[in-house]
Design brief:
- The chain is an alpha/beta fold.
- Helices cover 34% and strands 18% of the residues.
- It is built from ten helices and 19 strands.
- It has helices spanning 19-26, 47-82, 85-90, 143-156, 170-177, 201-218, 239-260, 316-325, 349-364, 432-443, and strands at residues 2-4, 14-16, 105-108, 111-114, 117-118, 121-125, 160-163, 185-190, 224-229, 267-272, 304-308, 330-335, 340-341, 346-347, 369-374, 396-398, 407-409, 416-419, 427-430.
- Strands 6-7-8-9-10-11-12-15 form an eight-stranded parallel barrel, surrounded by four helices. The chain has a three-stranded antiparallel beta sheet with strand order 3-4-5, with no helix packed on it.
- A hairpin with an 8-residue loop joins strand 16 and strand 17.
- The radius of gyration is 38 Å and the shape is globular.
């Protein structure tokens, strides 16, 4: 007869009922083989030690996060310090400029390249000040103005606009870039006041800081083509001041290179003309003169010469002379004629279109020019100092060789005629020049 050894064990181990076995059972003896679960001899885990282990793990994780944050902050501080206006101001122009830029805009020899392809500037000077406003009006902060203009510029085949000065908002540059679809690139003008004494260290430092901030703010936007320094400053300086000006421009160009690194944008000086003309331009500021610091050796950080040229119906003679004076590419920063004939007292749209087209073809066929920006997109009624910004006046200056009627009418240079509108936003009427350039530029695009 068999009895269960343990009623609580799932698998029972049975022993035969016998007196000897009964005595062993009574004495507490258990068989060697038993399927009954034995209690562990190890002490139970302590709740406190488990919590301590978790705390150590969290502390270690927190420490790693703090170290990572500290390293990231140091890296940001280091980069910011390396390219801050203060650091750039402290650097000296004693380092040779690197090779060709690794950025999207490059100068190779006398050519300009964008995204690895030759780029011919088919541009306009863009300063659409409304009727009744003066030169201090900030049209860049008026989206309705440039939203009116940009579609017309694209339709004309324009690929570049020149800004003389100002700090355009990102929305304006985004609209110019247009997500890379028929983009209009921007020559970023940095204004250098004519009445500032550049031999004074305080003035130089202040302008340098402003330019460093300007470059750092805009350098990463894809619409930026290059930086342009000043505008015809050589017309306003005495011979003793000229060298200070060109040396200062070279220092600004060095700062731009330091700020941008290997992806630097080119830097241009915008000169009034290139060579002296008897009876029109006083001597000084001619390209290639060591005494004024306009030779290539003195301007080793300047990449491009810009020049506002109004010599007459052709530019070829100036180009031939420039070719001997400098090896830098030439950008014709202003060219064209106005649409008013002072002799006859009427508009001259046909003459304006013919002369400007001839000048453009000289530029486009030149081996040294990278393009030009026509003067100007629209009429500016504020430019006659003896007139009113509410009237279309006829003031200007005599230029016997440079214009069909021998006179430059400053308020009539527009490719577009400006017409007052009750809405407050001026209407634009394309002159003949608009259609002539549209045909020329769209054909060669």
């Amino acid at each position: 007869m068999w009895k269960s050894f343990s009623e609580n064990t799932r698998f029972s181990y049975r022993l035969p009922e016998c007196p000897k076995a009964w005595k062993r059972k009574k004495a507490g003896w258990k068989p060697a083989l038993s399927l009954k679960r034995r209690k562990s001899t190890m002490p139970p885990p302590s709740t406190n030690s488990s919590r301590n282990g978790k705390k150590k793990y969290l502390l270690l994780l927190l420490l790693l996060l703090l170290l990572a944050a500290a390293f990231y902050s140091f890296f940001r501080w280091f980069i910011k310090t390396e390219t801050s206006p203060k650091t750039i101001l402290q650097s000296q122009t004693n380092h040779p400029k690197g090779g060709i830029s690794e950025g999207p805009v490059q100068v190779r020899g006398r050519k300009l390249y964008v995204d690895g392809k030759p780029y011919l500037i088919k541009g306009v000077g863009y300063h659409p000040v409304p009727i009744g406003k003066g030169p201090g009006f900030n049209f860049l902060q008026r989206p309705e103005i440039w939203k009116r203009d940009l579609p017309l510029l694209r339709k004309m085949g324009c690929n570049t606009i020149r800004l003389w000065a100002g700090t355009p908002p990102r929305e304006f540059l985004d609209a110019c870039w247009n997500d890379g679809r028929k983009p209009i690139r921007v020559v970023m003008g940095f204004w250098i006041p004519y009445d500032v004494d550049l031999s004074e260290p305080g003035n130089r430092k202040r302008l340098k800081r402003r330019f460093a901030e300007f470059v750092l703010h805009y350098k990463d936007h894809p619409a930026v083509l290059f930086w342009a320094l000043g505008n015809e400053n050589n017309y306003f300086y005495t011979a003793s001041m000229l060298k200070d000006f060109y040396k200062f421009c070279n220092e600004l160009a060095y700062m731009a290179w330091k700020a941008e690194g290997e992806r630097y944008h080119p830097v241009a000086i915008v000169n009034g003309g290139l060579f002296a003309h008897k009876g029109f331009w006083r001597p000084g500021g001619e390209v290639g003169e060591e005494k004024n610091g306009t030779d290539d050796t003195s301007l080793k950080y300047i990449d491009i010469w810009g020049a506002n040229l109004y010599p007459g119906k052709h530019l070829t003679d100036i180009f031939h002379r420039y070719e001997r004076a400098s090896k830098k590419p030439l950008w014709v920063s202003e060219f064209g004629v106005d649409a008013w004939n002072s002799r006859r007292g009427r508009t001259q749209e046909t003459e304006q279109a013919r002369w400007t087209l001839t000048l453009w073809r000289d530029i486009a066929h030149s081996k040294i020019a990278i393009g030009g920006t026509v003067m100007a997109w629209s009429d500016e009624w504020w430019k006659d100092s003896n007139g009113s910004p509410f009237t279309h006046d006829y003031g200007g200056y005599a230029n016997p060789r440079g214009h069909p009627d021998g006179y430059s009418n400053e308020e009539w240079y527009g490719i577009m005629e400006t017409i007052a509108d009750p809405s407050g936003l001026d209407r634009l009427r394309p002159r003949k020049l608009y259609y002539v350039l549209a045909k020329e530029w769209n054909r060669s695009s």
